Amino acid sequence: MAVTYIILLLFWATSTCIAQKKNTHIPDSLYNKEYTYLDEQIDIFKRNPSKAAVYVHSYLAKAKAEKNWKEMVLGYKNYFLLKSDENYKLVYADSMIYAAKNSKDNVLIGSAYLSKGIVYYAEKEHKAALDNYIIANNFITKTSDPYLFYKLKYNMALIKYYLGSYDEAIVLLKKCIDHFKDNDDRAYLNSLHSLGLVNNRLGNYGLCSEINNTGVTQGKRRNNTEVEPYFIHSEGVNQYGKKNYAMAIRTIQKGLIGIRKNKDFSNESVGYYYIGKSYWELRKTDQAIHYFRKVDKSFDDKGYIRPDLREMYEVLIDYYVAKKNPEEELYYVNKLLKVDSISNSTYKYLTGKMHKEYDTKKLFAEKKKLENSFNRKKSTELIFISVIGLLILSSSYLVYRNTRIKKNYKKKFAELMFKNENTKDNVVQNKIPSDTLNINPDTVAGILKQLEKFEQDKKFLEQDWTLVKLAAAFDSNTKYLSKIIYFYRDKKFVEYINDLKIDYLVELLKTNRIVRKFSNAALAEEAGFSSTQRFTNAFLQRIEISPTFFIKELEKQQL
Predict the structure, then answer these.
(1) pLDDT, tens only, 122-169
(2) Quick one: which of 265, 306, 310, 266 has its CA closest to 292?
(3) Taking the C-alpha atoms of 540, 541, 542 and 544 in order, what is their torsion angle to the nearest 10 degrees?
(4) Cα separation of 448 and 489, whole Å?
(5) Radius of gyration over alpha carbons of the chain, in Å?
(6) How far is CA 352 from CA 157, 164, 253, 348, 497, in A?
């Protein structure tokens, strides 16, 4: 109740604070204007935020005075046009969500959560963006609004792109292109641009160039050139992939003119990176390092980095090693460690797929070695003897460890195969403990019934189940669902979902020899895991042996 009251106070205070901050006077002549008139004026001046501001403020003021929740949502959305209000976009998005929920309109609620996700995405907060997209999807799928449906697909495709799921991103983007082609020029051009980027990452440079050329042509034909700098920028990066380095430099620099005007620091940084790489390939080291330092400065100023840019730090470390400049080498080793710490958090699905010449342990060792070199010289013989001794000890330990693991695996496999096939996880059957759970017994019974159906229908095989998503599917809340799963299944939510998937796979592997020929990636997909690593971790945790060993032992039994 207290939280709701605080949110309500913040909501009603938002437009007043904005008006005071902007010191914007709303003329009397605008108070009685219709929403359509105000909306038309906002559209006319959308490229001139200072002139649009008075109509944006008037629109929201009118909606609040009339307590019109639907128009309030649109009113807060209009504030996104005011470029000077960049730091307040999350505040507007939260106000949109509050107003949308009060409207009880699934279209507005879905749109509000989608808008909040887009704000997070623009700030490169990909995990927060994805969380809001998933919530938006829960409401949008209940509507028949095609624009929202494909807008969500487009933004999910961008997340897939950043997570390295390029094939999935292409499928989504092609659907968006087909839909937006005759319905929304800007959305169509954005989808084309993103499709080009994905093909570039897959090494389809010829197709990427075709898409970029189509984008520029279509933009001019549709009298919409806002995306043109991005197609040019994309083509410059693509020319680097084609090894046309001089062309890459010229093309990216041309695209950066419009990108700088948009204050798009992320694409500006990517442009500098590929200009630097192009100069490096042309053996113009000084120019390359000049642009690499611009990328590093963007990382310092904005905190922006993405996994493919980390290679720059590896190049700089190697360069200063060759130059015998330990101060600069140490500086960039520290920077690379910082980059990896961010990447491992923000891009945890993608960083495991990225080739890394410098793993984190090696970097820490190198950092310590460099720092110690400034204090004293170490004896070469002592280092050599220590390394040889360490290698001998490590090798002995690995042989012992592997032997012991195999022995334990065989024991676990035998236990699993002799286990009664009808044995399932124990489900607590005592009376519903309303005092223990502090939940209405009817609510508990209803959720348990839905859980049983969820398990029987094998809905757990779908990807990306979260507590929030399942609670929404059960028309419940996360608190109740989490407590009931923990009490009746004796597990936390993630373990509950993972164990259902693994138990399903184990039975499938026992009975289906064709499935045993699947790769770990294919098995992960079969059970609905979002990555191979998550599947293997879950299998080990549940069965206590690796999937590969389990399949080999099953095959031996069939001989």
Answers:
(1) 777 777 888 898 898 999 989 888 888 899 889 988 888 877 788 888
(2) 310
(3) 50
(4) 10
(5) 28
(6) 20, 10, 32, 7, 23
